Amino acid sequence: MSARALRALVRKDLLVELRGREVVPSMAVFVGAAFVLFRFGLGGTDLAGGTRAATGMLWVAIVFTALVGLSRSFAHEREGRTWDGLLAAPVDRALFWAARTCSTFLFLAAVQAVALPAFWLFFLQEHAGPSYPVLIAAVLLADVGIACLGSLLAGLASSLRAREVLLPALYLPFSIPLVLTAVRVTTDTIPPQTGGFDTLGRLGFLALYDTVFALLGWALFEYVVED
Questions:
Q1: Would you tell me how many other CB atoms lie within 10 Å of the CB of residue 60?
Q2: Does the N-terminal or the C-terminal CB of the chain have fewer CB atoms within 10 Å?
Q3: CA–CA distance, 55 with 48 (Å, rounded to integer)
Q4: Contact at 8 Å (CB) between 106 and 222?
Q5: Are 87 and 225 in contact (CB under 8 A)?
Q6: Nearest to 211 by CA among 131, 144, 118
Q7: Which residues of 4-39 are buried (b: 16+ CB within 10 A; e: fewer)?
Q8: Preceding omega of 191 cis (within 30 degrees of 0)
Q9: Contacts for 202-209 with beta carbons within 8 Å, 24 or more apart?
Q10: How far is residue 169 CA from its own chain's centroid?
Q11: CB-CB contact of 34 with 124 (8 Å)
Q12: Which residues contact residue 191 at a Cβ distance below 8 angstroms, ignoring those fewer than 6 apart?
């Protein structure tokens, strides 16, 4: 029953987004605008700081793009007054967190399917880029961590009047270890430098980060949604 309920909740989130088109388009516009601003901010012709600066900008854009989507997380249920009905359903409330985590991950992945080629176009055409399999692995692991952490904090902030201010204040400090590790993973794989076992260790840290916040989200969400 839990698996069926989870699929139904994820399907509901995806259908709401397909009909309303609120989250993914706004995230895509934000990340595209961020890349344009970063590219010309780092130099219109010569890229100041090289690809290492570019990878830092990539992760800043990813984190703030995720924040754009998370700011609308649970907003539809609250504004449409369907949240109480969902809580009255005979399912574990942690499933609401799990479903929102899955849908947030899918939204991020959809945006990044466009954002990563745009990143290459804006920053890496004339420079040696990082190892793309490592970059994709880091992005996917980071997406899981962002979705797990962000869904928990978005649920916490959704019932508060100052949620637009509170959510970034909670989310950004917790995302610092993820960003620092992800930046090191990508910069350490830029030729001719190779990260080797250090890169594997940092990918392992991202996996640990994901696990910690997945466990916290599953364990705490029932208390987060209590009025």
A1: 14
A2: C
A3: 12
A4: no
A5: yes
A6: 144
A7: ebbeebbebbeebbeeeeebbebbbebbbebbeebb
A8: no
A9: 203/134, 203/137, 203/138, 203/141, 205/177, 205/181, 206/138, 206/141, 206/142, 206/145, 206/178, 206/181, 206/182, 207/141, 209/141, 209/145, 209/177, 209/178, 209/181
A10: 16
A11: no
A12: 128
Token pair in block for residue 40: 């010309």
pTM comes to 0.85
Return the DSSP state at 193.
-
The two tokens of residue 102 are 């899955």
Q: Of 125, 124, 140, 121, which is closest to residue 185 (Cα–Cα)?
A: 140
What residue type is assigned to position 4 of the chain? Answer: R
Q: Which amino acid is at 106?
A: L
Assess contact for 216 and 101: CB atoms under 8 A.
no
Q: CB-based burial of residue 140 (10 Å sphere; 0-12 exposed, 13-18 middle, 19+ buried)?
A: middle
- Give every CB contact of residue 223 below 8 A, 6+ residues apart in sequence: none
Angle at 137 between CA 56 and CA 119, to 5 degrees: 40
Residue with token string 């012709």: 45
**Each residue's pLDDT expressed in tens, for the chain with a length of 227 residues:** 478 888 888 888 888 778 877 788 888 888 888 888 877 776 656 665 566 677 788 888 888 888 888 887 776 666 666 666 666 666 777 888 898 899 999 999 989 888 888 887 777 666 566 677 888 888 899 999 999 998 888 888 877 777 777 888 889 999 899 988 988 888 777 665 555 677 888 899 999 999 999 999 998 888 877 65
81: left (phi over 0), alpha (psi -120 to 50) or beta: left
Task: State how far Cα 69 lies from the chain centre.
Answer: 8
